[in-house]
Amino acid sequence: MKTIEIMDTTLRDGEQTSGVSFMPHEKLIIARALLQNLRVDRIEVASARVSDGEMEAVRSICRWARQAGYLQKVEVLGFVDGHTSVDWIVESGCRCINLLCKGSQKHCEGQLKKTLSEHVQDILATVAYATERGLAVNVYLEDWSNGMKDSPQYVFALVEALHHSGIRRFMLPDTLGILNPLDLISFMRQMVKRFPELHFDFHAHNDYDLAISNVLAAVLGGAAGIHTSVNGLGERAGNAPLASVQAILRDQFHAHTGIDESRLNEVSRLVESYSGIAIPPNQPITGENVFTQVAGVHADGDNKAGLYQNALLPERFGRKREYALGKNSGKANILRNLEELGLELTPEQTRRVTQRIIELGDKKELVTQDDLPFIVNDVLKHGTADEHVRLLSYVVTTAYGLKPLASLRLEVNGQTYEESAQGDGQFDAFVRAIRHIYKNRLGRRFPWLTNYSVSIPPGGRTDAFVQTTITWNWDNRTIRTRGFDADQTEAAIKATIKMLNLIEQDY
Question: How many helices (H) and strands (E) does the chain have?
Answer without folding.
Answer: 17, 16
